[in-house]
Specification:
Layout (H helix, E strand, L loop, with lengths): L5 H18 L4 E5 L44 E5 L10 H7 L4 E7 L1 H14 L4 E10 L3 H12 L8 H4 L1
Parallel strand pairs: 1-2, 3-4
Helix pairs in contact: 3-4
């Protein structure tokens, strides 16, 4: 699904992923995939799945695919989710803990929804440190992005630029 503001950060997402791999950081690709009939979609999105028509984020549809330039490589992990948070109704927490992960670096879209909810769930799950790379995340507007970054920083989340993180 096209997310406003997302295209501009793709180069930084690619660079952040490459750096993570070089550092030996486990790369987890979190994607949204829904039932073709929208039975697992939030109520406010159900209108995107009208009877007789597949919705925009069904597996195999362009809306459920990674954008050009983002590639899942051997050693990476793909996690399918159906809600904003990557932790909600998934096995992400147990997967990370069983792989010795106690810190998170979060990139992608959209800052007020998927990024924020995943980060706040990570805080609630007591991850030792959480970093949101501010120029490898995006929202529909710069103001919305900044306000959400501010809120996350206020609960102890690190918010460097890509160059500061590198």
């Amino acid at each position: 699904m096209l997310v406003k503001g997302g295209k501009a950060i793709v180069p930084n997402v690619i660079e952040a992923v490459q750096m993570a791999r070089q550092r030996g950081i486990l790369v987890v690709w979190v994607v949204r995939e829904h039932d073709p009939l929208g039975r697992d979609v939030e109520l406010f999105r159900r209108h995107l799945y009208p009877a007789g028509k597949e919705g925009p984020t069904v597996k195999g549809q362009i809306g459920a695919e990674l954008v050009d330039g983002l590639v899942i490589e051997e050693g990476d992990y793909k996690l399918v989710k159906t809600r904003f948070s990557a932790f909600f109704a998934t096995h992400l927490n147990s997967y990370l803990k069983s792989n010795g992960v106690d810190s998170l670096v979060v990139i992608g879209v959209q800052t007020p929804n998927c990024i924020r909810q995943t980060v706040f769930d990570g805080v609630a799950l007591d991850y030792k440190s959480i970093t949101v790379i501010v120029d490898a995340t995006a929202a529909a507007t710069a103001d919305v992005h900044s306000a959400n970054i501010f809120d996350m920083a206020n609960v102890g989340v690190a918010t460097p630029t890509l160059q500061e993180w590198v």
